[in-house]
Amino acid sequence: MSSPTKSIDEMPPPTAELTASRFSFQDLLAQAAQAWGLSHPMMLAILLAPFVVAGSGVVAALMGKEAYRWLTEEDQFAETMQVLCYAAACVMCVLVVRYQFKAKQWLIGTLYVVLGCGLVFLVGEEMSWGQRVFGWTTPESMVAINKQEETNLHNIHGVGHSFKWIQLLVGAYGTILPLVFLRKDLLARFRKLVDAVVPHWSLVLFFMPMFIWKLFRNLGPAIPERFYYVITNYNEIVELILAMGFCLFLLFQLRKCRREFATESTAQ
Q1: Which pLDDT belongs to residue 102?
Q2: Cα dihedral 234→235→240→242 (10° resolution)
Q3: Is residue 229 in some structural domain?
């Protein structure tokens, strides 16, 4: 019997697929762990992470305003962790591009170049392109149009609304497509491309909160004034879960590329 703490180099290549006849939690956990090449405890930690983060926001709100501000305000814990997640995802994206181009997967590699540029943009926007680090003064032209009077695009009056819909689409992408493509016969001819650009089903819960949250915020009723601060700031918690999802998506792809490269090297 193999040890549950084996490293990736000791793990067998993933072969199990999610099937309609296997819906017990233990089966799902085993299939996800095999796809990732991780031990069951580590896979369980990944599956539970969105619930832990979402719950931490609720707990902080119940603890009082100071605790909630520390967690959700600008440049506080949640936003700092978002930047770190996106920065880590950027680094892994570069490595994935390297593997894909080495394998002559030009289309997939190019798509990851585009993703990498998007991640750099997200890091820049979250940090107001260095303004919060270096403390430069916001140009007057930007002060006049930016609701936070900072050097970024997503807080410009009118533009921010578009970002909310983009976030909804990203959430929908990571929620719906992984479930659609559980059918391995669907677009089987392009399966390598699908597996490279669609998150693994185990990451659905990292994208679903953003999808549901933006449906509520974009299409739902107005928020009562007494709940406005708590609800609007909870957006930072939802964004953190999404950032973790991107980071884990890149980690999954990087681990898969390394396994494939190792297999090809052994075969040669």
Answers
A1: 95
A2: 130
A3: yes
